[in-house]
Amino acid sequence: MKKIRFCQECEKYTLKNKCDFCGSETIINAPQKYSKDEEIAKYRREIKKTVLKNKGII
Hints:
Layout: E1 5-6, E2 13-14, E3 27-28, H1 41-55
Antiparallel strand pairs: 1-2, 1-3
C-alpha cells in the first residue's frame, strides 16, 4: 500500500516520488503514530493541557 505524498513546491498531493506538476521530489505527509508510551507523549499532554487552560475549558 502506497502512502500519500506531498509536494512542498506546488503544494499538491500525489502517490509518486516526483510531482507530476513541477517535477520536484515529494515527501511522505503522514502524522506520527500515537502511542501513550512514546517518549514525547508527556510533552504532548503538557501542551494540550496548557492550550485547554488558555481556552478556559479546564
